[in-house]
Amino acid sequence: MSQPNPGPSSLNVNVNAAQNYSRSRPSSPTTPLYQTSPKPRGEDYVYFARRPQDNFTSDAVARATAAKLKLESYYKVAVDTAIERNARRGELEQKLSQPLSNEAKEREVRKYNKLESQHLRLKRTKIRLTDFRTVKVIGKGAFGEVRLVQKLDTGKVYAMKTLQKAEMLKRDQLAHVRAERDVLAESTSPWVVQLYYSFQDVAYLYLIMEFLPGGDLMTMLMKYDIFSEDVSRFYMAECILAIEAVHKLGYIHRDIKPDNILIDIKGHLKLSDFGLSTGLHKTSEGDVYKRLLEQEKQRDPARNSVQVDAINLTMNREQIATWKANRRKLAYSTVGTPDYIAPEVFFLNGYGKECDWWSLGAIMFECLVGYAPFCSELPGDTYKKIIDWPNFLFFPDEVHLSYEAEHLIRSMMTWADSRLTVEGIKGHPFFFGADWDSLRYIDPPFVPALQSITDTSYFPTDDLGNLPDQLETTQSLGSEQDLAFIGFTFKRFP
Known about the structure:
CATH superfamily of the largest domain: Transferase(Phosphotransferase) domain 1
Structural class: alpha+beta
Radius of gyration: 30 Å
Number of strands: 10
Helix content: 40-55%
CATH topology of the largest domain: Transferase(Phosphotransferase), domain 1
Distance between the termini: 65 Å
CATH class of the largest domain: Mainly Alpha
Number of domains: 3
């Protein structure tokens, strides 16, 4: 049955109702509630501006935004999972297209189904802090800790990094935490510490990574003082491949230093702490060191504890010993150590991946000489030396270095536009004869001697004191603040 057309009287009623409705609502001087079209469709046609947010409280808008973000994150993960599943299915179909026997094809199908079942089971499993028991605290920073933990159901040992959410937001560290999580999740390189799980609760972020029982390169340097050129050549070559792997992922490490170069169970190196220093300080921001420099200007020059030799432009042996004694404490602080940071990072004019090669040059200097090239008792003094590096980069006469070693260090520790690229470094005469494709299969100069899978003897745990097995109670975040950590969860499927 056709509907009757409204007559003039009904149109007048609708217009009057609309006008009464508009007078009952608050209007905006810039955005009227309704307006007449420039090209009216009819004398009585009314346009309404859609502003539904005016009818909701701020709490409702916040909840709607939270729901939107969570839905977007959920479907992004679902789509990524489907893409990965289709890729695995494609690999199976490619295998089955090979000239195989029926028995071999059935075996491949059974293997595929079993792995997919395990994958779905892992995806449904929620990882919690209660799934792990703390064995020992092996590292501590300004905003969190690193603990050796054991998973209760499998008995496997991991390194668990914990970060306080409230401190991450307070110190503007969110971007750096996400960068670390992303590069660890994306990487499958043998030169990068592997991430197995990441999860969170109301107060903490958790990164469950592989445990590398050999400690770090800094501990080795403090123990052995200096390395021979052969030993340094091996470790520098492995560092080059590790840094190159990070660059290929599209990241700049920005904090290459001995503390972040770990030694695995076989004695080979892996990089850790991406985008963050040991103290979780944002190293890309030179303002911290500029503030230290301003503080130094206000000090009494007569009380300056760092006396630079006017001839050698370096510290004396007693001061070097003091620097080494304080080195670990500085690594745990919120400021961190600037000893290995490239000068362009402090200038805040932008920088690229070449800043990592400067850091490697500084580490190579320390391996061969026994101390960092610009080491000082105070970070502000180190900062001053780095920005004026042409007048402070000095090779002491008492340490004999080959021409190739010194030339390589100088080729990395120079201005960014003159610095060697990875191809130039790998082709340098110092690495003549290096088999870059087989480094992880060569016997390293040091292999950790372990008593058990939970042996932490290569970590300076005595410097940490007696720390409780349980995490300290800390501030929890509100629901709106917690939205910043959506999408942090990760599970690695082998």
